[in-house]
From TrEMBL:
SUPFAM superfamilies: Glyoxalase/Bleomycin resistance protein/Dihydroxybiphenyl dioxygenase (SSF54593)
GO function term, MF aspect, one: dioxygenase activity
Gene3D superfamilies on file: 2,3-Dihydroxybiphenyl 1,2-Dioxygenase, domain 1
Name of the protein in its database record: Glyoxalase/bleomycin resistance/dioxygenase family protein
Ranges where the VOC domain occurs: 3-126
Database matches in InterPro entries: Glyas_Bleomycin-R_OHBP_Dase (IPR029068), Glyoxalase_6 (IPR041581), VOC_core (IPR037523)
Entry keyword set: Dioxygenase, Oxidoreductase
Taxon lineage: Bacteria, Pseudomonadati, Pseudomonadota, Gammaproteobacteria, Lysobacterales
Keyword Oxidoreductase appears in the UniProt entry: yes
Amino acid sequence: MSGPASAGLFIYAKDLERLASFYQTLLGMSRAHAAPGLVVLRSPDLQITVNAMPAHIAAQVDISSPPVKRDNAAYKFFFTVPSLQQASQTASALGGEVLPEQWSGPGFIVCNAVDPEGNIFQVRESVP
């Protein structure tokens, strides 16, 4: 991908490096840029900008292991992965989780997942 991304999202992280590495590895993204308090990840479809939470906010956020699911967000993003089974193994090794319940849609199977800080998102596997 050259030039600015056409789609992306911002994620605020208590542990910037851990969360950036989680998404980079799980989703096979490349690290396009890093600066103090910021990591930019890219894939052909999406850019994720992981920002460090301001210190006064991070001090009020407790991250447990396993993380407590933050399921009260107004919206949830999804990523297509080559294999839900592989995504589950990778997420688990990186401190997250792909939840076992699956739903089917036209051309895909989807599961909810949790990153190491408790953020809920979905992973989808394409099916014929």
